[in-house]
Amino acid sequence: MAWFLGTVLTLALLAALLTPQLHRIEQERRQRRADEHYRKQLQAATDHAITTAVRARLAEPVVDLHITIPMRVSVGDVIARAHEDFALDVPRDHAAAMLRHRLEFRGHARWPDLITDAFDDEEDQTP
Q1: Nearest CA to 103 among 80, 77, 83?
Q2: In whole angstroms, what is the distance from residue 27 CA to residue 114 CA?
Q3: SS3 of 107, please?
Q4: Residue 51, number of CB atoms within 10 A of its CB
Q5: Residue 71 β-bridge partners
Q6: Is the pTM of this model over 0.90?
Q7: What is residue 115's three-state secondary structure?
Q8: 52: pLDDT confidence band, cut at 50, 70 and 90?
Q9: Helices vs strands, H then E, count in the chain
Q10: DSSP string covering 43-87, please?
Q11: For residue 72, which of 124, 117, 123, 121 has the smallest C-alpha distance?
């Protein structure tokens, strides 16, 4: 019976000592999951804004083969899409960074007929 009581007391002491660390680890895990969820929602909103701009460009009638219709997508479009689709309030710098990333990833950043303000903030920060 004494060994049982000793084991129970040892386990209780370990639980008391480890509980704060376990709470901290759980909180960090929840924060990582929340950050990943935010990033995925912002990425989806950005992709939707870019797709909408591409479709709007393709929907324009071709009147002259020598004139290309520009694709317009702005940081405001990303912010509006994130708010509409996910009720997400996104800071302008997060939206601009994600728009730059997704335009480059999807190959639209080098389009000569792309009109966007996503790169304006980046140029203002260069010394």
Answers
A1: 77
A2: 42
A3: coil
A4: 13
A5: 114
A6: no
A7: strand
A8: very high
A9: 4, 2
A10: HHHHHHHHHHHHHHHHHS--S-TT-PPPEE--HHHHHHHHHHHH-
A11: 117
